[in-house]
Amino acid sequence: MRYDKFDFETSFGVSAQLKASDMPEIAFAGRSNVGKSSLLNKMLNRKNLARVSSVPGKTATINFFKGENVRFVDLPGYGYAKVSRDEKKRWGALMEDYFRTGRDIRLVVQLTDMRHPVTADDLSMMEFLRFNEIPFVVVMTKSDKLNKTQYKERLAAIEEELKDFGEVTKIPFSALNGEGVQALKEAIERYL
Length: 192
Hints:
Elements: E1 7-12, E2 25-30, H1 36-43, E3 62-66, E4 71-74, H2 85-99, E5 105-113, H3 120-131, E6 136-141, H4 148-161, E7 170-172, H5 181-191
Parallel strand pairs: 2-4, 2-5, 5-6, 6-7
Antiparallel strand pairs: 1-3, 3-4
């Protein structure tokens, strides 16, 4: 797959705007500010294709990036973003409709922050994916921010945190130094 051939296609902020799926999709999910946009930019070898912000909740729409025979889908972050209750309800409905409208979702790349234990929101998302039989891999972002001891401790801890999900693929990832990029590309290509 040519990762350098992806372009921003469109954004949708409400469910009614979602168009039918006409090609395989790889969705990127995770809590607010976990690094979904940075990961996409690193994988696609672009600096600003996906908008990056230090402000949680910046991605308030579903953003579609079209490649040769696949779409990457940047989903709104969930969790601690300081937005209104109505905005959170809109995001929730948008996410639910995205997953429940018969799309050709081949894989969800579930992002977690490697520096911290997996959150209850992350576990709920993975439970939703498992219940709906949607394959997923776990990408642990910000791996470069840990020293060697912390890195080893978090690798061991996540095994325990995700033990109920069996042999799910876990990939440490750094948008800064590129750790995990190749492993993630290989995982995506297996599901396509």
